[in-house]
Design brief:
By secondary structure, the chain is an all-alpha fold. The protein has helices spanning 2-5, 8-26, 33-36, 39-68, 71-74, 82-104, 112-131, 135-141, 144-159, 166-196, 204-230.
Amino acid sequence: MEALQNHPCAVVLVCALMFRVVHRLLQNLPVPKVVRGEDFRAWKWKNLSVSMVHSLLTGTWALSCVLLWPETVHNLHSYYTPMSYLLVCVSTGYFVQDAGDIILSGHARGSWEFLLHHTLVIWCFMYALFTKLYVSGAVVALFVEVNSITLHMRLMLKLADAMSSPAFQVNKLLNLFTYVFFRLSAQAYLTWYIVYNYSWLDHASFFLASMVLMNGMILVYFYRLLRADFCPRAKRTGTQNGTHKPTPMTQKFLTD
């Protein structure tokens, strides 16, 4: 494990390649006919499938790190374990791969907010990997991936035109619960920790600014989620199912 920590860039690139392999393997799985019939839907389905694998893996991993090593959530600045360090490597590799997929597939212009989020996450995570500071902070930040599981499921059901199905109705309630308890709560705790310890934290101003930007995004997406799923009259005609246009972030939200 020490060898991995001495070469974080190499480890991240290997993880990115592994997620690219996952991307290829998932193409062999059956896809709903309505998804296959439209290029954007087909690309979005494949992209969300890889994101789902990442969320299932890292969300469970992040929770396990906190349960096994409670100090993780109390000392976000300098505490970390080999397993938490590896988790951040794996997740950074995913974000590198996903950013590359968006750019190379030609959807960068319509997803600039999404790429901005990925850039912030990669920058913060790479800082943690090189300095071995804030690794635990990155682990807590990955709590949002628990919510991303239901977010990705929601969007995949919408892509498959299954919005009237019982699965969608159950998922939207689970999505609301996980959004509040894993995404909003995690972001609130990270923000509080930085503000409370601002006077002595390394590069506190940068991380606080990054958190404020991400918090703003997350609150906007939460409003859009509530409006779309619980106040359907507020949805605009032609964009209510989130599949007619590759609008930035409203289709996949953030993670991230």
